[in-house]
Amino acid sequence: MYRPLFWLSAVHYDPEWASYTLGVFVCLSCSGLHRNIAQISKVKSILLDPWSSTEVEFMDSVGNNAAKAKYEQIVPAFYYRPTHKDCILLREQWIRAKYERKEFLCVERQEPYSAGYREGFLWKRGRDKGQYLSRKFILSEREGVLKYFNKHDAREPKTIMRINTLNATFQPTKIGTAHGLQITHLKDNSTRNIFVYQEDGKEMVDWFNAIRAARFHYMQVAFPGASTSELLPKLTRNYIKEGYMEKTGPKHTEGFKKRWFTLDDRRLMYFKDPLDAYARGEVFIGSRENSYTTLPGLPPNIQGYHWQFGITIVTPDRKFLLVCETEEDQKDWIAALQTVINRPMLPQEYAVEAYFKHKP
């Protein structure tokens, strides 16, 4: 078996697989995705498979940096570049966009997410029975909105979502489909969830990037002094942490109830069901300088909880008592909350905090 010296550098950087038709090294997970475009990318293990001298010379002449320069010539700034932590759909469509569709060699091929307007049908989860129904969606940068219609021939939209409060994040496990996308927006300063999917993976990722494009262009106008690198993290965001905890009410005398919690930036929301449209409640998580903190455990004499690993969130106005099922969950939640608390508040976040304090 032929083993060239440059294998050593490849193994040092983790990838143990390579596409010998594209000349790039890939990780195990991405090697499986490359096999989905076998007409373009053929993969081998760099440790276990035999290599011909011709294949080795080709790998040596190309490599990841040269391939990136060739296939990523004009990636739009807003286009989401997935990492190994992202869902399979995002990673697969990134690979297909680069090597199969060659979207980043020709701007005309980017029109589905770059045009500033997108219209199409998505399966949307109904609020009541949880059924997914076909709904017409329109994204318009000119109007600054994403809207959907309950009937295909309806003239007025059922819901209008302002681009300035819009977020989108893929949630395949939570929604139960590989193409599941969670879209959120603020309605009366409260978070509203919409869960959608489409059978065509490219369509879903195009919708996702169209939302990012609309957000990017809005922010360029809203924050003219901000650099692109400052704006990109704000286009869409994944949740800091999600999972079940038990909670009690403000008097700390009510029984603890199991709820699904989502930490989205400075909003800690809880739901009866992970796929609920609206949160049962939201808690603003401020900064340490403003007297916010988290403590392990619960105050003495608290009763009515089933799980054993407590968390006390201290705010200027009250304490929120939560309980986790495992000690690991407790540590993870405290670490996630402290990440937010350790970050100084931005000027616009004080306005959000003030709204929470005066919320009925």
TrEMBL record:
Protein name in the entry: ArfGAP with dual PH domains 1
Picking any one GO molecular function of the record gives:
phosphatidylinositol bisphosphate binding
Q: Where in the cell is it found?
A: Cytoplasm
User: Quick check: keyword Zinc-finger in the entry?
Assistant: yes
State the GO CC annotations. Answer: cytoplasm; plasma membrane
User: Matching InterPro entries, A to Z?
Assistant: Arf-GAP_dual-PH_domain, ARFGAP/RecO, ArfGAP_dom, ArfGAP_dom_sf, PH-like_dom_sf, PH1_ADAP, PH2_ADAP, PH_domain
* Species annotation: Sander lucioperca
Q: Which UniProt keywords apply?
A: Cytoplasm, GTPase activation, Metal-binding, Repeat, Zinc, Zinc-finger
What residue stretches are annotated with the PH domain?
A: 115-216, 238-342
Domain Arf-GAP intervals: 14-112
